Structure formats: C-alpha cells, structure tokens
Amino acid sequence: MTAETEAGLPPVPNPAMKPLGFWGCWSLTVGVMIGSGIFLLPTVLAPYGLMSFGGWLLTGGSSILLALVLARLAGRTTRTGGPYAYAHDAFGDLPGFLIAWGYWASVWIATPTVALAFVGYLGVFFPALNDNPMTQLAIALALLWGLTLVSIRGVREAGFVQLLMTFLKLIPLILIIFAGLAFGSAENLPAFNPSEGSFISVLATTALLTMWAFAGMEAGVIPAGEVENPQKTMPRAIITGVITVTIVYIASTAAVMMLVPADQLAASTSPFSQAARVLGTWGPPLVAIGALISTAGSLNGNIFTSGQMPLAVALDRLAPKFLAIRNKGHAPYWSLILASSFSSVLLLANFSRGLVGAFTFLLMMSTLTTLIPMLVSAMAEFKHSWRSARGWAAIAVLGALYSIFAILGSGLVVLAWGAVLLAVGVVVFYVGRQRG
Asked: For this UniProt entry, which segments traverse the membrane (predicted)?
C-alpha cells in the first residue's frame, strides 16, 4: 500500500517506473515554446530593423534567468506540478491552488488556438480547406483528441511523441539558419532603426513582441513525479532547453532577414517560406511541413501538461480525488479528458460568429496566466534564498521584474479579466478541495 493510498488517494501505478528522462523534459520545454509564433516573427519585427535583436536579447536573457530560477526550485523537490508546487511550498494552499488554476486554464484555453493554427498550415497543401470551416473544425477536433489519446495511453508514449516532434520541427529552422549563412546577403538586412523611435521605446516594443515566443518553458518541470532523478534531470533540461530556443530564435530570425529584402519581408505573410525559396522548389513546402509539426508538437505538450497540473493539485487534496487516478501508463486520464473537453467546447465556440470576440479575450487571458506562475516562482525563490544565497536572490528579483514587465504589457483589460479568472478560482478552491 502506497502512502497515497493510505491517505485516501488513488495508488501510484508501478511507482518505481519513471518514464521521463533528460530528453523528455528537454523536449517538453523546447516543444511547447516553439509553436507557430516563430514563423511570423521576422515579419512582425522587420519594421524595427536591426534594433529588434535588442528585444530578442532582452527576452532571451531574461528567460534564461527565469530558467535558472525554475531549475533551482526544481532541484529541491520531487513533487509534480512545477510552479504550482513551488508556490504551494512557499505560500500555502490557496496561493498554490490559484497558480495551478490559472495555469491549467491557460493551457486548455490556448489548445484550440494551436489546433486551429495547425489547420491553417494544412491549407497550404489542401487549399479547399480554406473555404470549408466545418472540415477545418473536424480536423482540429480529430487532432486534439488524437493527441489526447496518446497522452492517455501513457506518459512514456506522450514523451516519445513530444521528443520526435521536437527534433522534426527543428530541422526546417536549422536549414534556414544554414541557408542564411550560405546564401544570405548583408545587403538584405533592414536599417538599424527604420521606425526612428527612441532606443528605450523600440526595445520595449520588440521585447513585448518577442516575449510570447518564450512562454512554455515551465512545461519541462511540471511532471516531476514521472521524471527519473528529477532534482538533477529537470534543472539541466530546462536550462539547456531555454538556451536552445534562444539560439534558434535569434539565428533563424537573422537568417530570414539576410535572405529576404527588408521591403519584401515587412509585407510577407510567410517569411520562412519566402526565405526557403533559395533551397529550391522543395524549400517552402518543407517549411510548411515544419510548421505543421511545430504546432502539433506544441499541442501535444499542452495536452500533456493539462493532465499533470490537476493531478498535482489532487495529490495535495486541493482538488477532487478522481483527478489523481492514473492508469498503468501513469496517465491521469480523467484530468486529460476534462481539459480536452473544455478545449473542445472553446473550439466549437470559435466557429460561432457571436462568440469570436469572447474567444479572443480568453486567448489573451491564456497568455497572461502563463506569466503569473513565473512571477510567483521568482518570489518563491527569493523567499528561500534572500538570507542564505544573495546571488540567487538577485537572479530571482531580476526574473520577477521581467515577469512584471511582461504582465503589464498585457494591458489593463486583460489584467481585469485575469483578476476575474482568479476570483473564480477562489470559489473553485473552497468547493473542490477534498474533505477530511
């Protein structure tokens, strides 16, 4: 009888088995971070010229600081939940639950968007899809539930799919980087500051534009209970993952800018495909396939974490017991089914014209609620280290300041709706926690 069973919770299936190792955690971090956003960022940043790399460096450097904070926190616990576990340990039941609630909501709210992005890229190969919304909906739902079934089958299977998709999605990005080195020209690079804005204003704008590309780094530390030697594995995986993503983002953006003239890049709707034309006729389709794999991999990671977060909360008796039930593959199948059901409802709502505006609000809230756990994690590290390790406390303060900067960049309306979401979380906390 396991300790969990003695406490009245479902037993752990084969507790000696730990399905995830370094590469599983690394692929969760990289795979969730690199989604569909990177494929449009060179166009978005083109009006700001070479100064846009200041934004990349600021967000990349700040993200590495946050990765260090998460790595240090991960080195102290073997509990599943990532930012939830850190907040719970540092600040107690309610703050911990609210972090889990907001983060879990952000995942299943974002999932339909990623599924729709996949269908959008599929339209490159099947143009008839663009005029058939019902078929688009059917494909998005099939993808969502197909990947949910992968996660329900088991943690090891979901981890393998995530690792495979992560390596495959990196191939076209790396090819573009090498193409930029081989065929790119410095003459194509945009002016240093074509917008003629002040240094601070351009830096702030480009940092806000690029910071969303780093959302998801925490995915690699959430499934701690399923990781072999998590206190060593997860810190190495998340730091390596964030550094990998930072290098790929900056290098691929530079490559596209060297391959596509600045005036064309600013008007492009598919900058990577345009850059890939130097590789021949097979270049643009390869990028489109890479985008499909990228979005599917990000979706797989989202679905996986949507099951792990409720599991962590239920194991602490702060959520209904059934969310902690796992099958022999260690998959919390009821948690996965619940999250994917919510995502399906939002996906269906997106095809109702009257709800598009509300759906957009939910997506903006999703972005906000991925930033708040980073802030609270930095605060938890500061609380732990400010007396004993001033250097780590300073890193936590810098990470917290960056998180606040990112949160404020969401805008007052989104912050207000985020407050509503957390208020609902307070009600759910008192209603849903286990008694006795």
From this structure: 20-41, 53-75, 96-122, 134-155, 167-186, 198-217, 238-262, 282-299, 331-349, 355-379, 391-408, 414-432
Q: Is 423 exposed, middle or buried (0-12, 13-18, 19+ CB in 10 A)?
A: exposed
316/342 Cα distance (integer angstroms): 23
Provide the number of structural domains found in the chain: 1
Q: Write down the pLDDT at residue 6.
A: 45
Would you tell me how many other CB atoms lie within 10 Å of the CB of residue 211?
22
**CATH code assigned at 101:** 1.20.1740.10
pLDDT, position 66: 93
pLDDT confidence of residue 340:
96
Q: What are 89's two structure tokens?
A: 């340990």
245 CB-contact burial (10 Å; exposed 0-12 / middle 13-18 / buried 19+): buried
At 325 the pLDDT is: 92
- Report how far residue 144's alpha carbon sits from residue 1's, in angstroms, rounded to the nearest whole number: 36
Ranges under pLDDT 50 in the chain: 1-4, 6, 353-356, 358-359
Distance separating the N- and C-terminal Cα atoms of the chain: 20
Distance CA 224, CA 254 (A): 36
Residue 52's closest CA among 284, 249, 291, 334?
A: 249
Least Cα distance to 294 among 249, 333, 360 occurs for 249
Task: Supply the pLDDT for residue 305.
Answer: 93
User: Cα–Cα distances in Å, from 432 out to 134, 161, 193, 225, 313?
Assistant: 36, 33, 53, 23, 11
Which helix (H) or strand (E) segment holds residue 3: the answer is: helix 3-6
> What does the alpha-carbon distance between residue 8 and residue 391 come to, in Å, rounded to a whole number?
42
Residue 282 corresponds to which tokens in the numbers above?
């097979």
β-bridge partners, 227: 20
Query: Could you tell me which residues come within 8 angstroms of residue 353 by beta carbon, excluding any fewer than 6 positions away?
Result: none
Token representation of residue 281: 């006729």
